[in-house]
From TrEMBL:
Signal peptide segment: none
Domain AB hydrolase-1 as annotated: residue spans: 73-192
Name of this protein: Alpha/beta hydrolase
A GO MF term: hydrolase activity
Keywords: Hydrolase
Top-level taxon in the UniProt lineage: Bacteria
């Protein structure tokens, strides 16, 4: 065996080992939960209360519920990092518009048991939805949460959806961040947002920052283009993925409040 051949075998072996490691550990790169239990809801969001729900595979998950003065509840499904405490400012802002809010945490997040997977997050969202079955509902999906709520909407339709910084699918977002890796064939979780939204008839609002370095704006625009129902696109000029403008900025809050108004007018026949 020549020196060149031995070197090629060593490189190939290292690559195979690296790919195997990525395959086994990929969910640690995708899901970045803050597992710390948040304080009681009322200490963070005025009027909020702690609630819980049980998933179809037996996990009891904690969440926060903020009552509203209007017959519209916003189910907030967060992104891949943090926990519900990080989204509390959004819940407060929506509450000021009279909207009820269910701020869920996935399995493994915010002191909840279990470990996150695509199928697990779907079970979590289905169980959360049961808590608000008596009112009109808007699904708010942040980044990865857009994958959660668009799949949820296929089984439990909503009156409207707001997708904040959505990607077409997880592989596309992964390829944008790791262009040197064969992301698509390696991924175990898919989150096919564009595929899902093409089957949803409810009105959809897509909100994205024009300088998003994590989910390229072109992916969010492609999600809007794929929508089957009425779609509204909101660009937040100069905003990056995790900027405050994408959490409680006026464009984001107005997108949700405006959709709630349209739903109410539609229900009233006006």
């Amino acid at each position: 065996m020549t020196t060149l051949t031995r070197a090629a075998l060593v490189v190939a072996t290292v690559l195979v080992l690296l790919l195997a490691l990525l395959w086994m550990c990929q969910r640690r790169l995708i899901y970045l939960p803050d597992s710390t239990p948040p304080p009681p809801a009322g200490e963070v969001v005025p009027g909020a209360r702690d609630v819980s729900f049980t998933t179809s595979d037996g996990l009891r998950l904690a969440a926060w519920y903020v009552p509203g003065t209007r017959d519209v509840t916003v189910l907030i499904a967060g992104g891949n990092a943090g926990n519900r405490r990080d989204r509390a400012p959004l819940a407060r802002a929506l509450s000021e518009h009279g909207l009820a809010v269910l701020l869920m945490d996935y399995r493994g997040y915010g002191g909840n048991p279990g470990a996150p997977t695509e199928e697990g997050l779907h079970r979590d969202a289905l169980a959360a939805r049961e808590l608000i079955s008596g009112s009109r509902v808007i699904y708010f999906g942040e980044s990865l949460g857009a994958g959660v709520v668009t799949r949820l909407a296929l089984e439990r339709p909503a009156d409207g959806l707001v997708l904040r910084s959505p990607f077409t699918d997880l592989a596309a977002a992964g390829a944008a961040n790791y262009p040197f890796l064969p992301v698509r064939p390696l991924l175990r979780d898919r989150f096919p947002v564009a595929e899902n939204v093409a089957r949803i008839r409810a009105p959809v609002v897509v909100v994205y920052g024009t300088r998003d370095a994590i989910v390229p704006p072109r992916l969010s625009r492609a999600v809007a283009q794929a929508a089957a129902g009425h779609v509204t696109t909101v660009e937040v000029a100069g905003a990056d993925h995790n900027d405050l403008a994408m959490l409680t900025g006026p464009d984001v809050v107005a997108a949700v409040a405006g959709l709630a108004e349209r739903i109410a007018r539609r229900e009233n026949g006006s």
